[in-house]
Write a structure and sequence with these properties.
mainly alpha, 443 residues, 3 domains, 12 helices, 78% helix
Length: 443
Amino acid sequence: MPKGRRDVLLRVANVNPASVTTHTDRVLYSAIGVFILLYFVYATIGGAAFIDAGSNYQHPWYRWLVGPMVAAGVVAYDRAVVGRVAISYEQLESTDPQHFLRKPTFALYAGRLGLALLFAVLITEPLMLSRYQGEIDARLNEVHNQQLSRIDRTGVVGTYAARIEALKRETAADDAVVSGLTDRAAQKRQDARKLYQQAVTDSAGDGVTRAAGCPSGGSCDQLVRRSRSLDDEATALDVQAGRLLDTQRAAREARSEEQVELTRRIAEQREANEVAVKADAGFGARTAAMWHLVTSDFWGVGVFYLGITLLLVALDCAAVGLKFASRGNGYERNEARIARRREHEATLIHEREIQDARTYGEAMARVVADGIEAATHDAEVARDSAERASAVLRTSVVVPPEIRRLSSHNGRHHRPVHAEFRHGTDEAGRHRSPLRALPSEPE
């Protein structure tokens, strides 16, 4: 295989191909690159399955956008873990390989493994829910029916149903009163028919008296009278029942309307409850149903669930596990040598720059001190020269006493020199002609 193609898997594993110098390390990190590529496909499908499970398996189109992003994040984490080498920057001058790498800590391993397991569980669980979708749907249907039954008993539907039963009992009570009257009327009519039949039998000579005909005051006549009296009483009871129905009509209509309204509300509430309960089929509900299946039927579902889950978790942790197992190999030592050499060179250069800066500062301080000393010396020379020139001038030029008096103040007099001249000339006659050259003093 050409070298460029062999380096592709090393680049996928975030490994520097230049530091992979042995066949063992090349095979190791190539295998890590293969696991990372496989895991990218696995994480893409898992992320899409997570979005699909969260939408009650409506198969939204954007799940294939979320899946690759989740996979890219997990793969980036794995590449960061695999490509990281714990280099020790202490004792940079040492060439002992034991000083190249830092000692691993339990927290570092636990943190990396914990994050890898977290990613694995979050991505593996949606795949398992998709695998057992049929069993989970059956369990959710059972759970939803139980919820609907409980809501009908204890919720607002139960309240409405109890009110309808109370209205029915009130209507039944009214019907019982009316039916009592009508039953009594019917019984009286039945008794009247029996008495009349006895009267007819008696009139035919087949009665108790064995006398034919129905003379006034006789047994037959009494039976007829009693029959007619019972018919009248039955008619009165029917009239009373009719009047009672008239008085109950308004209450019956009100109860009937209330029953219709309550029935409509019950239908609406049951429809709303069914929609709400059926909507409770997201990721959490399916996970709970999956756990119920695992615990209730461990040998039928739980064993395969745990086996597949552990297999997928092992696939996720394979890259990180190989990284942990290969700590301190030739690749990491090569990377540590390069990094430690660069750090050592940078440290030496930094020390040299600090030393140069100190030397430069000392030289600049020395130059400034010499300049100040030379300037001080020049100022003293100029002052001495000025004093000598002044002395020579005083000895070689004839100066009037007034000028001598003024010059004795070292130039710090209160009035200008021309004022002194003007004052002297005013005393001599206030002339303004310029002074003529004074005669030299006799030797």
